[in-house]
Design goal:
Layout lengths: L4 E3 L8 E7 L3 H9 L7 E6 L3 E6 L2 E6 H4 L2 E6 L1
Length: 77
Amino acid sequence: MLGSLVPLDCLQPGEFGSVADISGEPEWICRMAELGMQEGCHLKMVQNGSTCLLQIGECRLCLRADKSAQILVRLQG
């Protein structure tokens, strides 16, 4: 359902989301921000799975499943 908060690893390929929250160690949260993954950013799930592939703007980012579960996104159309 659009607008629902879900863990990032629940997005299907081709779905869009907006980052609502990132949890974890402060160093990891900082590293994600350096890579463009921060609260409010828009992303697209390119490939899901144990290593997911995301598109954030013109960049692509791979995350392991344990890390992608720490990111909550708001589903977008």
